Amino acid sequence: MTAGTKKVSLLTGLTCMTLLWANAQTIKGIVSDKDGQLPGATVLSPATRQGTSTDLNGAFTLNTQTTGKVKIIISYIGHDTRELELDIKKGVHDAGIVLLQPSGQLGEVLVKGTMAPSQMKALSIKKNATAIMDVIAADAIGKLPDRNAAEAVQRVQGVAVARYHGEADAATVRGTPFAWTSILFNGSRLPSANVMGSRNSVLDAVPSEMIQYVQVAKAITPDMEGDAIGGSINFITRTSPAKRQLGVSAAGGYNTFSKDGTYNGSIVYGDRFFRDKLGVMVAAAIWNRQWGTDAFEVAYNTALPDPMQQKSISTAMLKRYMGQRQTYGANIGLDYTFNPANKIYFRGLMDKFNDIRPVYESYVDYNNKQYQYNYRYSYYQTVLNGAELGGEHQLSSKIKMDWAVSDYYTKYFLETPPTNGNKGLPIATFKQKITGGFSNLAADGRRYWAFDAPDKTTGGMPLAFEPGIANPAETMDASKLTLQQLVIAQLDTKEEDKTVQVNFRINAGRKVSLKAGLKYRHKDRSGMFGSSIVYMAGAAMGIPQSPALVPLGQLERTDFPMRGGFFTGMQGNHDALAINPITKQQLFNLFDTAALRANGFMNVTPKTNPTNIYDGTEDVAAGYVMAEIAATDQLKITAGIRNEYTMFALHGSKATVSGTPATTNITPVSVSNNYNALLPMLHLKYSLNSQASLRAAYTRTFVRPNFADLTPGESIDNTKNPIAITKGNINLKPTFADNIDLMGEYFFHNIGLLSGGVFYKKIKDVIFSNRINYQEGNNNYVLTQARNISDAWLLGFEGGINKRFDFLPGVLSGLGVEANYTFINSEVKPTGTYTTSLPNQSKHLFNSIVFYERKGVMVRLAGNYRGASVESINTQLGPDFFTWTDQNFTIDASASVSITPSLRVFVELNNLTNEPLRVYMGDKRRVTSYEWYGRRGQAGLRWDIIK
Predict the structure, then answer these.
(1) Is the residue at 58 inside a domain?
(2) How far apart are CA 280 and CA 273, in angstroms?
(3) What is the reported pTM?
(4) Does residue 162 lie within any of the structural domains?
(5) Where is the TonB-dependent receptor-like beta-barrel domain (predicted)?
(6) Going by C-beta distance under 8 Å and a sequence separation of 6 or more, which residues neighbour residue 810?
(7) Which domain does 135 fall in, by range?
(8) Under 8 Å CB-to-CB from 226, ≥6 apart: which residues?
(9) How far apart are CA 931 and CA 923, in angstroms?
(10) Which single residue of 283, 565, 600, 735 has CA 20 to 30 Å from 110?
């Protein structure tokens, strides 16, 4: 081909593309049924063979190269397919609201069922999604007894949750550490005020009523946040409806442990004004509950040099919580449609979680031969506020732009007010000597469980725990328990993310769509954890002429909250350890300056406290480009690349302890670093027919190091031999993963799904806390610091079914089942001597729901199983000292009956089997924590006043 011919060909090609661009028209509209917008509906133009699907608000944008009469076909699960003939002119054509009608036998289900519409939405979104994902819709969340965002997502295939005192508070995807799952709000990373400096977001502050959809992406696309090795969980808040709606709910309940009541209520209002241009959605919820927990906790002598004695018991504690939790939430959604091509929106969110925990702790201290009794009044508070302003604009028939700016803020703090003005968590510690010693010690003078004891006979078993006091008459006694220490534990962590982003979608041809975008996030973070104000009684420290120690019995006290008994989950009677505590006000009064002086208390606050405080910034600049290609009628290819550049700076303090007597020198220190993450991704979707498809994906993802590991805080203790150094590591590299996913999906005609797949992750530079001994000059050192010390892999498969048995006769046709199972195996080598699974990774995850829905009656019985998972890895001592959370299986239930088309009564029950939470060290019998928290339930009304 000559140069001239090439020029003519190029000119011809450009001319054709220009004509196609100029002739392309845009059809916009909203697909709905009588109950509201339909997300995931398929919209197709047969003449041009171009198609699209509706977004989460039921809106669609379809390009066509012709004017005049154009036919489009709209289809949706459970509805009759509808054909429209539109008279298209140049520019943007507004098709308005397209109403679909329920089809055939499913029409009866949709009218009278309670879960079918919600499942229909979720399956439609999943079916048309580019990413490999699962979806939950708001209706489904509200019909199971899941009261916060973490509990709502626990039913999803491949998702595991962590439970704290009976309530789920964090979630992870596919068995990865919790910080490896990206938690998103409306597509942007949710800031984290995690107390331990982790990037994991705690979700117990978010009421489930605030959520419209939950998208769990297992294989992400380039337009999603890239720090998601496990996957991402995107919580989408409520937006305005197509028509007016108003609904309220109210319920009251009971907790079998606290023997007290609970209540919750919610209101959801949505409407449209100014000829449907302005949409408004307001939602608010409150959940107030009394709760309680018995926790049997055991600490071991892991710091001793003798390997056998490292498994001996240091302390055994019976701890009771008896408190109150309050969750408040409100969100607002506004949108204004100027014309079919231009729309702006606003979302606002305000959540507050109060966790009020009076705590009663009775210790048996075997090392120091004493009883110890602590009373603390904990008042933890979590705040999550945020707002987002954005817009969607059809710039031309080929180009669509959307943009958003957001500001989300979260804070986790303690603010109990002791009278001297220091805020935090006040703790009073009383001690009593056990003069007669113990009767169940081994020959080496230490306490073991029987299976660990050198002679294999002494010590008993954990749930048959007996203190083993040699003199049975030497019980814990308020007249002998003396006040020896007062502590104010301080905690204040906050994080704020300000984000701006813009995305462009370009229709580059009949079979090619391009998308590109930029995002910038500025994070401000500050943390204070591990700092304490400490006062010790002079007499307890042996200081001459100090005032006598104050007995517990001489202080103002109140009754111990026995309620239904004390540690009834264990064998034996432990009531002797249930001591009447001081009152809350008495606790506060002990911290008064005059009281401290009168009782002979001295301030012994650690001089190294400043090393536990830091602040700093993190800036992330991200960009992506991707193409969606319809290679054939069956094969769709999504390919692209995302790049995220991270810059951060942290400021803290360094403490050096040296000399005799020891002195502490505090100096400020600042650190900074930056790194880049280049993330290529490829997705393939092959449609076998209208119901079945195969998906494959390769994605590269990453996670940033946790702030606790990066912190500039450093402590050097020159008084020890070897010299002890604890510090952060600013040179940590991100952890990267190459992920391969294969998935098959079959969608039943009657609103159901059969799916299965396999996944593999090759992970590089896993971060662990490491302990290193080294010599420099004439000195020996031991350095504790986080490092990139291992690679890992993870392999698993998952399968699930959602099936209605409407083929059964009569009343049995309302039966159905949802079940999913995930198997996960992983391997990481934190040292050169042993391997283990990844932290938080359970080998088996299982969900099952048996349901019945017919003629306004709904009954659901749900089981959730999470296998054992390693939680902390002791790189120094090895697998016998790893901490594990044991397998956990909970059963929940719910039922509702429609009294009228708008009013229904419901019942919700949680933890029917009273499943405890078990944590152990190395061996399941070597308990570190055993928690019982009882059952809870509620009954109430839901009234759709306007729908």
Answers:
(1) yes
(2) 8
(3) 0.90
(4) yes
(5) 492-912
(6) none
(7) 110-237
(8) 220, 622, 642, 644, 677, 679, 701, 702
(9) 17
(10) 283
